[in-house]
Amino acid sequence: MKNIERLEKVLDCSIKQEPMLSVFVITFQHAAYIRQALDGILMQKVDFPFEICIGEDGSSDGTRELCQMYADKYPEYIRLFLRNRNNIHRKRYVNPAMFNQNETLAACCGKYIALCEGDDYWTDPLKLQKQVDFLEAHPEYALCFHDRIKVDERGTIIDDDPLPQEMKRDLSHDEIAMSKHSTPPTATLMLRRSAIASMPDWFTQMPYGDRGLAIVATQQGSAGYIDMKASAYRIHPGGIASGASGARRAWMDIKSRQIVLANVPMSRQGRRFHVKRIMELYCEAWNASNVISLAERKKLISEMAWFIKKHPQCVWILLRCIYRRLVWRVLRFSRIFSWAVFHYPVVFLKKLLPRHLYTYFKAAFHRKQIS
Predict the structure, then answer these.
(1) CA nearest neighbour of 253 among 222, 274, 268
(2) Do 212 and 161 belong together in one domain?
């Protein structure tokens, strides 16, 4: 990763030992959640030195002040990077928030890097110790991950087993690159810093970083799965992914997969999978296009047409999508029609007739049905 001039204020810590592990935390507008994230990190019970690198991206809701308070209280652990949102280097990124991620990642000094965004948190005080022990015992793995739970903005559990069953195992580079699901959850990841020491130029074009990090890291080794639930992923309106509409989530996934398809070496089967998955995501975005603006809808159609022109085999996926959409509309109309045919006459009679006559005819009809 290239070193560039940093225009931000850095509140450095006074760690006396070289850290074995760096905890990577990026945060923006997380005032309601950042305390729980940092407390979950500080409660960790480990037998090695570690540091906490916090990239605060210019929040205006009090997140910055909370991070400064924690940095003052725990100077032996925390290195705080206060980003300036007017920094000219942010323009190099498709998603300017990726600047904070990459710069904070470059500041990590440990042999291993554990990830936890400011709106997520850890639940197991032995999480870091277990993951470090795993990577120390298995040098063939470039990263490890585990299961998690999903919570809402108040911390109430909404899904205690969200990780797909097919991801609850060790994964190779091709399996992560070709996964129909997301990559291993961010707050569960621990990577070897050596596996991501040299980040490719295409990484700056990614709309979000967790997929790119996992793909780059697993070029140096597999991803190991540890069977435990030790973190919580928070669903809330301000989340980059969880707060986005279905159309926008599909669009972000399209962009990241297109970049992977264009830049990451993979098998012929892997390329076919990505082409098919991108077209399916275009269809998902179109099905949810009622929640995006007209200009974005036009852009979506033009991009879809360009992609089909480049990959003609995708026209069958589009036709299947159109067919399913038509079938769904016909079935929906038939349900509404049948409900109207049988419901409205009853409502009409109830409003038209006096109450005692309506009750009489209803009882007579009921007796006839029974006989």
Answers:
(1) 274
(2) yes
Domain of residue 153, residue span: 9-234
Residue 13 clears pLDDT 60, i.e. is over it: no
What is the DSSP secondary-structure string of 115-180? E--TT-EE--TTHHHHHHHHHHH-TTEEEEEEEEEEE-TT--EEES--S-GGGSS-B-HHHHHT-S
**CB-based burial of residue 274 (10 Å sphere; 0-12 exposed, 13-18 middle, 19+ buried)?**
buried
Q: Output the pTM of the full model.
A: 0.79
Is residue 103 domain-shared with residue 164, that is, in the same domain?
A: yes
Instruction: Choose one of 180, 214, 234: the last residue of a domain.
Output: 234
Residue 110, pLDDT > 80, answer: yes
Shared-domain flag, residues 169 and 49: yes
CA distances from 284 to 94, 100, 229, 295 (A): 22, 30, 31, 18
Nearest-10 crossing angle of helices 268-287, 294-310: 150
Q: Is residue 323 part of a domain?
A: no
pLDDT in tens, 257-287: 888 888 888 888 888 888 888 888 888 887 7
Q: What is the CATH number of the domain that holds 112?
A: 3.90.550.10
The H helix count followed by the E strand count for the chain is 11, 10
Check whether residue 38 and residue 157 sit in a common domain: yes
| Count of all residues that appear for the chain in the document | 371
